[in-house]
Amino acid sequence: MNVKLKVLTAGVLFFTGQAVMAQKDSTKTQNIEEVVVVAYGVQKKSTLTGANVQVGAKEIEERPISNVLQALDGAGAGIQVASGSGQPGDGISIRIRGTGSYSVSNEPLIIVDGVPFPGNLNSINPNDIESLNVLKDAASTSLYGSSAANGVIMITTKRGKKNSSKITLNTSTGISSRFIKEYDRVGPADYYVLAWEAMRNGRRTSTPAEGIAASNAWASANLITGNLKTNVFNVPNSTLVVDGVLNPNAQLKYNDFDWAEPLIGVGVRQDHNLSFTGGNDKSTYFSSLSYLKEEGYITKSDFERIGLRLNADSQVKSWLKLGTSLNASVSSGGNAVDGVDSSSSFINPYSWTRRMGPIYSPYQHDPVTGERMYGPDGEVLYDAGAMRGPDAASGRNIVWETLLNNNTTNTYNAQGNVYAEMKLLPELTFRTNGAYNYRGTLNKIFTNTFIGDAIGVGSASRTAYFNRDYTFNQVLTYDKSFGNHAFTALAGHENSAFLRDYLYGYKRNQSVAGAYEFGGFVDNTSINSQIDTRTKESWFGSLKYNFSEKYLLEGSIRWDASSRFATDVRWASFWSAGAGWVMSKENFISNIKAINLLKLRGSYGEVGNDALSSWYPYQSVFDLGYNNGTEPGVILSNVADPSISWETKAQSDIALEFELFNRRVRGTIEYYNSETRDLLFPVPTPLNPGIPGNSIQTNVGNVTNKGYELTIGVDVIKNQNVKWTVNAYGTSYKNEITKLPQESIINGSKKLMVGKDLYAFWLKTWYGVDSSDGAALYVLDQTLYPDLKAADVRTVNGTLVTTKQAKAKYEYQGSAIPDFFGNISTTLNVKNFELSAAFNYQFGGKIYDTNYAGLMVSYLQGGAAHVDLLDRWTTPGQITDVPVLNSVTAVEANAGSSRWLVDASYVMLRNASLGYNFNKDVVKNVGINSLKLFVSGENLWLSSKRQGLEPYQSFNGTVNPRYSSARIITFGLSTTF
Q1: Residues of the signal sequence (predicted)?
Q2: What's residue 99's pLDDT?
């Protein structure tokens, strides 16, 4: 936050908030000191020795976001974001300075108003946020010890100000729509021809003695009856495609093949916030009431939240200050299957609308006239898919099922923080905090009786989570200054407990239509409950010293114990040391007018990670409920290493900060090196010992991240009427595995090996297409398959290749880690107008595009086809990268390989806004202090290597047919009274 200062006399500065010292240097422009939030307190930015990125309230308030973490997309160097799904209310996934863990969480620690926050941040109104601070290095994070390996995000909510009162209204209305365009796919006419061609070529392969005319006739006769089942043209099945050409007399009986239109549209977004802030000499308060309703662009997906906040502080005695932060919210929403965990689900709207062949309609049509059919009451009749090809999900209908099924979640959140701050001595302060977080969620799912998973019976499930979190800390701070010396010593204790109650029930056989609760179902199919808890206790301390704010020293240490580990390895220590030198205060620099600030800082420290998915990783556990009739049964579900303990991340950081030319140019150049030791890792075991998952979680392996960060800000124009500012961030880093328990471990499309990175692709090497016969070619693995005279082995341009994907050579094919990524933003103020825009960019890195691969199959049997299939090989000598369509060799052509890798580079207009501030003289006549009208947008434009690709979907370079992020455009106003 920026501290407000009042000049009373020359050279003496006072402020209306917390005390800070301003730089007294007559040779330099007077600067208002900035105070930033740090671990267990605040600190002048100029005295920091750690890496701290701050996002203020102004950057958050007018953006149409429902989860405050979305404001960190493009917020600073070293912050890498995988965009959340388009499901309203969802947040984003964040990596701070790369990926340092393999099987445990890489998400940063969230701190809200000084205490850890384990809940979902969609429970907090973004308009209530004063600032977000991202702590990136050990010097800034080590006071959080075992929770800080992935960085720390400090969230500070707004509080009242003394002797002032204000009412603020922010309201906006807008629309939500699809942002990522769909892949280009062929239409009905081309589709039949491509399917016919694959069948004909397959016939030629399987029956080589048959003449070409006979094979053509066979494909024409079997195209519909033997494969696609449906003919949407007005010519007989056997004459629809003749000799590879669509019948010139063919006309569509209907053109009703758009599955996306009834599911994907435009949603309305409303966001209204009313806040009251004020106070007197003794007490201050901030309170707010908020309402958000965001409809997703996919049918029956939405998010609605009502929130209430009260923050209050009171100086009850000269030595005692009390305060509280209370937040409560109730939210509800309809959930669409986003595809990340349900990529193959029949009710995944993205997968279905993308992959359904362009000859099948959601609706029933008269087979003769082609007219859409309706029921006796005029209701739409949906097609259950009996006449579809094998790849077109016969017996299912995503539109019908979406309309009939229900999936909703209701969430109840309550967070309460209270503190007492006692001034024991002028230099000695004791503060104790207590926090309680409650989050209760109830998910309700109904599956209809007409079509789908519960056809004929219907089903209902209920999943409830009741999460409670308690945190208590006590912090003693000694702050002393004398002469040019300033000391701050801190000592504290913290303990926390997290409890989770889980309840699940599932019933089938609906008794009465319209009855969706359990009482309306007959069969008790499944019921289960579970309670889990974990605890943590910590002791910590720090010491900070500076001499004339020129020479800076900091050190900290923390001891943590986690219930995730056995008692003899439960405790671990984490620490850091940092130093800074403000060179611009030295005599040899202070007289250089062009230099306002030149600061060198560095740090080293160790932090930890225990964020395993298991609550009890050091214990071998059994699952209950595997009963044999009335006889109880249990099953071994996890074999543990009882000595399992902390991951430790050792981090070093060095940076140069600068401000030049009357602070019109600002920036930071930074280098960091972090090594995660004792990596928590699922070590593979032999298949025969009966160990669940064939692995045991233990501490093995090391991984490093090394990178550079660049931050630059420039006031291009700065005068009374015009101010134009440009800020840019850039990051480049390398990840490397430096130790493993065995030579290599293969996991999907990745192969972990010393000297490689966690996201290095290990795939069969695609060579291309043989121009002589259109065969798909792969580089031959000569070590495993030395028979170079085999029928499937060829030599092309001096390279040994094979047409059998099983004989292909596996090789490293690049990495998902980009070469360089960052953000460029600009703000232009012209009198009362304000324009801002922010672009995200990424250069390099790879994505394995399975969505595209699914549209490039060489044998169409009802699934959609990408337009690139039109470039398939057809004629000897043809140069193309799309193999011949052939029903017999399709498996060889479409195997997983480097063929499906694509460059992950992109440029994206992440957000933009245009606002107009009315002159105060104009609005004060109607009793308003300020009034601003604005239009704001998120996810506005994207340029990537392929239409349909979502290049920022994940960190590991994989994609899913998911509910992709939305484009949101809102119009609003902000006013104060």
Answers
A1: 1-22
A2: 92
